[in-house]
Amino acid sequence: MKYFKELELSAINRNIPIMQREGLEFMINVFKENNYHCCLEIGSAIGYSAMMLVSNIADFKVETIELNDERYLEALENISDNNLKDQIIIHHDDALQFEINNLVLNNFDCLFIDAAKAQYQKFFEKYMPLISSNGICIVDNLDFHGMIFDIDNIKNRNTKQLVKKIKRFKDWIFDNEQYEVTYHSVGDGICVIRKRVT
Ligand SMILES: C[S@@+](CC[C@H](N)C(=O)[O-])C[C@H]1O[C@@H](n2cnc3c(N)ncnc32)[C@H](O)[C@@H]1O
Question: How far is the CA of 50 from the centre of ligand 1 (A)?
Fold first, then answer.
């Protein structure tokens, strides 16, 4: 892939959050093992994870939604520069306001939630019904740099609120009988969520 390593470094240098390589490799393996072909991503940033997925999995497509103006434009440029427009469809919108009838692909095998952490449950409730019955949802950053295990000692008030919200989502999904959840301490903590077969 054209300037892929540079893209990763450029994101890190500009504090643009992108998925850690270890987490991406894990996700790629899960998608390959399950023979998945179509992913809906919430939070594209500059298109890094979407480009990694389509470049490493045969016959794979991603439809992704990004809220931020500059990141959306940069993602568009990166996708186009790498000739990946046939495999990645990107929308510029707030995923919570986005009209789902505007999605282009269907038969999504996986939902990858990688946007505003305080809204994980809302993203999940809105988009999980679009995922096929044998599909999964992947959620990243559930450890929040380990802070989730030591909330009482977080000094910054905003960070503490955010970490509490992440923990609330984690507890909610683990207690939800409709879903089977496996936690993987890869990268910053990844959950794989499947609909329970009844
Ligand atoms: C962690 S970054 C995504 C990284 C990307 N998945 C990757 O690994 O290359 C999260 C992105 O979600 C976007 N975002 C936050 N809230 C959003 C929302 N409600 N709808 C769509 N995008 C959102 C942010 O602007 C940010 O670029």
Answer: 12
